[in-house]
Design goal:
Elements: H1 23-45, E1 61-77, E2 80-93, E3 98-103, E4 115-119, H2 132-140, H3 149-156, H4 163-178, E5 183-185, H5 188-200, E6 211-214, E7 217-220, E8 224-233, E9 238-241, H6 246-249, E10 252-254, E11 263-264, E12 269-274, E13 291-302, E14 308-310, E15 318-323, E16 325-336, E17 343-350, E18 355-362, E19 368-372, E20 375-379, E21 384-390, E22 396-402, E23 408-414, H7 420-423, H8 457-482
Parallel strand pairs: 7-16
Antiparallel strand pairs: 1-2, 1-4, 1-5, 2-3, 3-15, 4-14, 6-8, 8-12, 9-11, 9-13, 10-12, 13-16, 14-15, 17-18, 18-21, 19-20, 22-23
Helix pairs in contact: 1-8, 2-4, 3-5, 4-5
């Protein structure tokens, strides 16, 4: 997950010359953690072949490209001062568009070309940060939202600002609220801007998502309308794409009157019109006279400033500072069966509780029972229940829940709810060419599907064992040196 960008350090990658006496300890940690990550990959290898798909949040999906406008900052810690790059990242949006972001996860490095997804604050460290609203104020009242640098300099009481100074000062002010860091900008003008923004910041509410569908999953009996699924968006309109296998299933996307829908607006209610004799969809066919289908909505809009972006491989959390007209999308699924339990499942990460909250609605005539982490849960007919699955920080999860008529739903991701300072108080990592496997925290895959396999499993196992042995060897050598 860690990687250096060409031409600049990531905003959480400190200058190697500033590290003081931490090299041996980090070497041990890196070796041991790398082994643990490899073991985690081994645990999840079988799950990759399991049927079912993972759900994702709606909104923008983008790939990070690196720091584009930045200066330098100094982090003051007990072990000494460390220099870091501080400023704006740039992301390329899938389908078209560009995003500018600052990071709100100082001590967690950024992986090159990591894919990010627009995410609610509640599923990030911002969800438990009482000062998250102040960060949004900074974003709204500084660069690049305020691109008149002379005006911004006048408000901050400085003689002048370059784009680099403005980006560095803004990032430093954000870190003080997001990570509680003792950090200063190197340039005096940038430092004065950071002080002004920090002291002036006021709390603002979390911005709405650019595009979501609620709920993301519905279910019911064929021969009627399943839903509704409500559109929430800041776009003027969205394009509604029917299921790819509509010719097989006969499913249509309609409004409450049964009229086919090809476009929608904020607040529109969409339904799946499922024929009585609907066949199983190609994406996931049920064996007991049922099936499933999926609709997609897409739009072009500016993503609201202050939206969070996260990556499944725990590249550092980003917060949106600026957006061009960008492509956003969301999906919702429907499942149906003629009889028995008819479940619809969705999941969200709950950083306040440290859990993955799986919500299940059973529209069938029999209870829906499933097992999760050695615990059995039952959703009565016609009821909705939420199961809270406890997870450790940085824990990768891969849950597959099966049900009647061949039903299977898979949920994958990583619980990333804290900044590193919240967890350990460790200093910024000092890495010149970070490895994608050098991840902090505990990574454990829990695979409930327990199906499939991989030809590379023995290789992964060998690498994992070897790395753990190397980590132990380094520790022994260091202890001998201390003696």
């Amino acid at each position: 997950m860690l990687s250096a960008f060409s031409g600049s350090s990531g905003c959480a990658t400190a200058s190697a010359r500033s590290a003081r006496g931490r090299g041996p300890a980090r070497l041990v940690a890196a070796a041991l953690v790398t082994g643990l990550v490899a073991v985690g990959l081994l645990a999840g290898a079988g799950a990759a072949a399991a049927d079912g798909t993972s759900q994702r949040q709606g909104g923008a999906t983008a790939t990070i490209g690196g720091l584009k406008t930045y200066g330098e900052a100094v982090i003051h810690e007990d072990g000494g001062d460390q220099r870091v790059s501080a400023g704006l990242f740039e992301m390329s949006v899938e389908g078209g568009g560009t995003l500018q972001t600052y990071c709100v996860d100082l001590r967690n490095p950024t992986q090159k070309d990591a894919k990010y997804q627009e995410t609610p604050w509640s599923e990030t460290s911002l969800g438990t940060n009482e000062n998250a609203g102040r960060i949004r104020w900074i974003l709204q009242n500084s660069y690049p939202q305020v691109n008149d640098l002379a005006a911004l300099a006048g408000r901050a009481g400085v003689r002048g600002l370059t784009e680099q100074d403005a980006a560095a000062g803004t990032q430093v002010a954000i870190w003080r609220w997001s990570d509680g860091a003792h950090v200063d900008a190197v340039d005096p003008q940038a430092e004065k801007l950071a002080d002004y923004l920090e002291k002036s910041a006021r709390s603002m509410a979390e911005p709405d998502a650019s595009l979501t569908l609620d709920p993301p999953a519905v279910s019911g009996r064929p021969g009627g309308l399943l839903g509704p699924v409500t559109v929430h968006t800041n776009a003027r309109s969205v394009t509604v794409t029917p299921p790819a296998d509509a010719a097989i299933t006969g499913v249509r996307i309609v409004d409450r009157t049964g009229k086919p829908v090809t476009s929608a607006t904020d607040g529109s209610r969409l339904f799946f019109d499922v024929p009585e004799d609907a066949a199983g969809g190609t994406a996931r066919a049920f064996s007991g006279g049922g099936g499933s289908a999926e609709l997609t909505v897409q739009a072009s809009t500016s993503v609201p400033v202050g939206r969070a972006f996260t990556s499944d491989n725990r590249s550092q959390i980003q917060i949106l500072a600026g957006s061009s007209e960008s492509t956003v999308s969301a999906t919702a699924s429907a499942g149906w069966a003629a009889k028995g339990a008819i479940p619809a499942l969705s999941a969200t990460e709950n950083c306040a509780k440290g859990t993955l909250d799986i919500t299940g609605a059973n529209t069938g005539d029999k209870p829906f029972t499933f097992s999760l982490m050695d615990t059995e849960y039952t959703i009565p007919a016609g009821a909705t229940r939420t199961v809270k699955v406890p997870l450790q920080e940085d824990q990768a999860y891969d849950f597959s829940i099966t049900g009647p008529n061949g039903f299977q739903q898979r949920f994958t991701g990583v619980l990333d709810c804290r900044t590193q300072s919240d967890e350990t108080g460790d200093a910024v990592q000092t890495l010149s060419e970070p490895s994608p496997a050098s991840v902090g925290g505990t990574t454990t895959d829990t695979d409930l599907a327990a199906t499939g396999g991989s030809a590379i499993t023995p290789l992964i196992a060998g690498v994992a064992i070897g790395l753990v042995v190397i980590g132990g060897g380094v520790l022994v050598v260091l202890r001998r040196r201390e003696s």
